[in-house]
Amino acid sequence: MNKKEIAELKKNFSEDSGLFVINRVVMAYVDAEKAVNCINAVNYTAMEPSQCEVVMETLRKVLSGTLGKNLTEYAFPQTSYEEGGAQKLLYTALRDGLNDEEIIKSFIGRIAENADIGSCYTVIAGLCTYSVPKKSKNDERLDDTDNDYSFIVTALCPANTGDDGLFYDKAQQVISKKLNTEMIIDKAPKDGFLFPVFSDRAADVNAVMYYSRSAKKPDLSIIEDVLDCTFAFTCDDEKTRFRALVSNICGEELNYGVVTQINDRVRELVDAGKNETEPPVVDAPRLKSILAEVGISDERTANVKGVYETIVGEFPLRASNLVENKTTVQADEISVNIGKDATDKVRTSVIGGRKCLVIDLEDPSVKVNGMETKIQGEE
After folding, report:
1. Which of 179, 204, 262, 274 has a 20 to 30 Å separation from 153 between CA atoms?
2. How far is the C-alpha of 172 from the C-alpha of 357, rounded, in Å?
3. Is 346 in a helix, a strand, or coil?
4. Which of 160, 242, 147 is nearest to 202 (CA)?
5. pLDDT, position 163
6. 249 near 305, Cβ under 8 Å?
């Protein structure tokens, strides 16, 4: 799925769309010991309007966030369609329409057994249908529909008693601490997934879209154990590996100017791809081109492919995860933060035999700890 397809699906994920319906809903409560305490399966239209509203809001959030950060598409391995595999189970549940009790138990049981959440949570799964409208060559929506895209979207929502504070008892006119035994289910899912993905405006059963509320902390137990997929990197992992790549390849040719220029090139790549459906990436050939542009020698850039395979492997790095919004220069106990538009005002130099960081000041006004000061030597 690309950004455009996610946006289309999310835009129509509403009762007001006229093209979208939730057909069936499964809700299950899993305790901290991974025991499934209850499973409810109902038709969406049989639910109370207030409950429908919460379910719609919760499931829609599984499509929120940024592609490549909160949302990551994973391809199933071939073995996943064998008996007992995640793809096989999801496909069976989809074809069944979340009606068969045993299939539902297997579906919820797989999540409960393999998800290592460590606390109580509720699984909310919806069988949905989006009637995909036809589009003209100019990408304009037509009245007819191409096909029905049926999918299961699943949200894993934390639950707790919410009894941390004091309570006001209006009848007794007292403020006191009380034991609350009712579990409050968070409307915002911590994790979730969508199957099959919406690719080329149609269903693709060979992949699943995983959602994590925290882009920096995806749940590997869900990705690898529940969904059978191979985890790649978090956004922070990608940045760390990119830094290692640049350091290893450039060696002694790495300096302040090279670092800032590389960052500028990657930012240009991100800006140029803002309106593209696929997020821009940096792979070995792209990195080699960037390093050559900023003046790294041929002797050094010849090593890009081998170093990339060692540090990253076969995965391309998402450019948006590599950009630094500010440049930080650190030395001993000194740290200087430089905005993205001011990197050219800073340089390193050797003055009087001493290594120095030089900052050009166009504005003579300088503040230290929030106070206006004079520069020594200034008349």
Report:
1. 274
2. 69
3. strand
4. 147
5. 65
6. no
What pTM, to 2 d.p., does this model score? 0.78
Side-chain half-sphere of 25: how many Cα atoms within 13 Å? 22
Q: Tell whether omega for the bond before 196 is within 30 degrees of 0, i.e. cis.
A: yes
Of the candidates 164, 186, 193, 198, which has an alpha carbon nearest to the alpha carbon of residue 87?
193
CB atoms within 10 A of CB 219: 20
Please give the single-letter amino acid code of residue 299: E
Query: What one-character DSSP code corresponds to residue 315?
Result: P
| Single-letter amino acid code for the residue at 343 | T
- Residue in 108, 140, 157, 129 with CA at minimum distance from that of residue 44: 129
Spatial distance between the Cα atoms of 188 and 49, rounded to a whole number of angstroms: 19
Burial 100-118, CB ≥16 within 10 A → b, else e: eeebbeebbbbbbebbebe
Structure tokens at 87: 């793809």
3-state SS assignment for residue 285: helix
Cα separation, 284 vs 303, whole angstroms: 10
- Distance between CA 242 and CA 136 in Å, rounded? 41
Which backbone phi and psi does 45 adopt, to 5 degrees?
A: -70, -15
Tell me the pLDDT tens digit for each residue of 2-35: 889 999 999 999 989 999 999 999 999 999 999 9
Instruction: Write out pLDDT tens, residues 330-346.
Output: 888 888 888 888 888 88
Strands 167-169 and 174-176: antiparallel
Report the half-sphere exposure of 345 (CA within 13 A, side-chain side).
Answer: 13
Task: Give the Cα separation of 357 and 73 in Å (integer).
Answer: 44
CA distances from residue 232 to 33, 235, 318 in whole angstroms, order as listed: 28, 10, 12
User: So what's the pLDDT on residue 364?
Assistant: 67
Q: How far apart are the first and last CA of the chain?
A: 62
